[in-house]
């Protein structure tokens, strides 16, 4: 059995079990009234912690290891206690003067429990509030050693990491598949201190100067009067801002492209966005841009699918990441760098490297892999880890320095400052998930939530009372020494350089690099978002911006809005496309892809069994869909049903197969007679929910297959058997074989009507 098969099997099995266990309680104690539920009565030794419960290995500010003990604090002792360790005999009943009498103020357990509950929430992140994270390892290839002395990028080095993915605009409870930028923040717990790469899945940013960050976020967040819309950019204030600040045009175009609706966190690229400065052991410097390249390729949802998922499974991306890791299908990315000579101009091929609205096309500067990231462990506790993790672009290690990108400068302030509100004080570095793995010996003292017990009496330097400790390191003993960059003589101004004023040639390059179907999606996205705006002036201004990018784009969007196309105020820039920007036209691994197999008691159940095995063998996840839950009896044994017609919806699947005649799920969905009663004689050929499943899968460009009479269901759904990506065959095995080839391309792109 391949590891893929085992892992995919596990996903399939965990997905179907959602039963709840018996409720806790302590029989024999006063007030216990639930004899129908069997309870554990004898205190027992705790179970050994699960592999994922040990938390990161951390070192406290005083150098003492603490992580594992810390993580085992709850749910592991025999007796329930108060926060002070006193054992409790009842946690379900307030202390009362008689069973029907008033609750007594002296109930210290009630007060402690409710007091703590009242303060369980902390302020959500002002941006990137909605996120999901995982632990992993970063294995360096050593290929960056010539340009940086950073130890974690040296040869044969493995570094623990914690990665948090996020959306930008929505609140903590918002849906995952909204059209938005995604955060991709990585904490490397290196031997030289923590390095945070706080990036996004889009390589450019809306603004060129951090001073505008509050403004762009105010514009993107819900309107201040009604607080709507949630987690959307399709509203007036957002479009007002991005059309008035045309530096936002490039980022906005990426958002309107398929990159704005990723299929999975596992299938996104990541970017450090800014240009950083690397320094090697000899002190030589190189300018660099960081990239994360997903092993599974870059894939997206289609817009209708994304919208449906927000209702059907708002946790779609979070669930996908956790399920894949739980099943052992560990997501992987290569860290890669584009390098540029560190010249005084800080430009490359005419592209200003300090302008964060610019990319450097991969064709001009190759993206060179320097290591492999593998996410292999889910957090044990969402709050303790994913919520409390604090990233900061200023968490740097020797060998990696910053540049004068004015967007980066403001970030260097913001990420520290925001933690004081969010995490309640300046000691957030002591929270287990934030603790460096390198020994910490700072002279920071006291403050809210100080959990370390510093020793010594002289937290200042130099001192004679603590033996002069701590000592200062030098460059040769691992100190972080800033690159002594020369700052040219200048006059103090509030101005951007002239080179920051080209806002249109880079978005035009992106547009020209897209395949026809990707362009169609971009047109659709602009038409949708601007169509949601109320102000005519904003729509007209947006068309002026689009005219500067491309006349075809402007005309198509204008047609959708019912407005005249704008005339460009200047001719579109003369730029070469960058084919690397397109997501279409390549073949990728299909690990973890989800295949829905629709069947029923009358279906080809032995065929289903064979196909299931083959799907698992290929490292994909088969989910059997039948009219009702439970099991189906096939000649070769029982088949477990994982989804019913009531719980299955096309968005969960990358491909759908129909094994024989699936039959009706329920009379409620059949035809009715004049009195509204089920009309047994005139059943439709297929359950309408199966028809919906198939028609959606068809519309969203997914591979579809059928055999042994499953063609009837295709017909009932209006899916032509001879359409591209639809496979009808004699047996499940032959259908699956043809289908597997289609999945590597992610979608059946020919099925999208282009220019229609
Ligand atoms: Fe930011 C969070 C990425 C510009 C201010 N940002 C945050 C997160 C990511 C990014 C991924 C979530 C981190 C996590 O998971 O905890 N931000 C970016 C990128 C930017 C960027 C790629 C541009 C290249 N950010 C930016 C600017 C400012 C901020 C210009 C302020 C001037 N960002 C913040 C913040 C946040 C944050 C307010 C909110 C929560 C936090 O930091 O810890 O400080």
Structure characteristics:
single chain, 756 residues, alpha+beta, Catalase HpII,  Chain A, domain 1, Hemocyanin, N-terminal domain, Rossmann fold, 3 domains, 10-stranded antiparallel sheet, 6-stranded parallel sheet, 20 strands, disordered N terminus, binds CIS-heme D hydroxychlorin gamma-spirolactone, EC 1.11.1.6, heme
Describe the structure.
The chain is built from 18 helices and 20 strands. The chain has 756 residues and is an alpha+beta fold. The chain has 3 domains: 131-434, Beta Barrel (Catalase HpII,  Chain A, domain 1); 505-581, Hemocyanin, N-terminal domain (Up-down Bundle), CATH 1.20.1370; 594-751, Class I glutamine amidotransferase (GATase) domain (Rossmann fold, 3-Layer(aba) Sandwich), CATH 3.40.50.880. Strands 1, 2, 3, 4, 5, 6, 7, 8, 11 and 12 form a 10-stranded antiparallel sheet that branches. β3 and β4 form a beta hairpin. α4 runs antiparallel to α5 (236-244). The longest helix is centred in the middle third of the chain and has 17 residues, at 406-422. The relative contact order is 0.10. Residues 1-6, 11-29 and 49-72 have low confidence and may be disordered. Bound molecules: CIS-heme D hydroxychlorin gamma-spirolactone. CIS-heme D hydroxychlorin gamma-spirolactone is lined by residues 125-128, 131, 164, 166, 183, 185, 198-200, 205, 210, 213, 273-274, 356, 389-391, 407, 410-411, 414-415, 418. Residues 1-9 have a biased composition (Basic and acidic residues).
